[in-house]
Design a protein that fits this description.
Length: about 180
Amino acid sequence: MIRRLASITVAALLVVASTSCTGDNVSGPAQAPATSLSLPLLGGSSSPALLQCDPPAAADSVTGIIGALGGTLQLGGTSVVIPQNAVLTPTPFTLKVPASRLVEISVKAAGTDHYVFLQPVLVTIDYGRCAGGLSLLQPVTAWHIDETTKALLEPMFGVDVRLTHSITFYTGHLSGYAVAD
């Protein structure tokens, strides 16, 4: 039963991630190379490093009120899909992409630093601005991070879809997240 649920979850992630392409056209120079910012994890010598890209992302945000029927917050290829009954009362949520070389996002519910859902939500982070500097064999991962120190707090096990340059994962809480290699 657990294997079947895990297979269904991975299949659902792949379907959602493969359909999250956007038709946005971006003008300007070709993809800039990606570099890494090494941050030690639990004192180990080899740890994931937060993905850094040139040029830095321009700051952007979107806010929406989401209630019991669910909803989606989306900025380009980055999105947060909140299913039905994950939120009981209409609540304002904000998805932010800060001006940063890091591939990071912040998702908040009005008036809280951390928000716990009644059901998991699906988060997709677009790392397309860094894709030109990544080898096809170089895996990327998503992490729950401390938004101030950028410390890696918890791996967010998900699916890296190279075709769309995005990583998709489920989470039960909202906070800050970033992509590492």
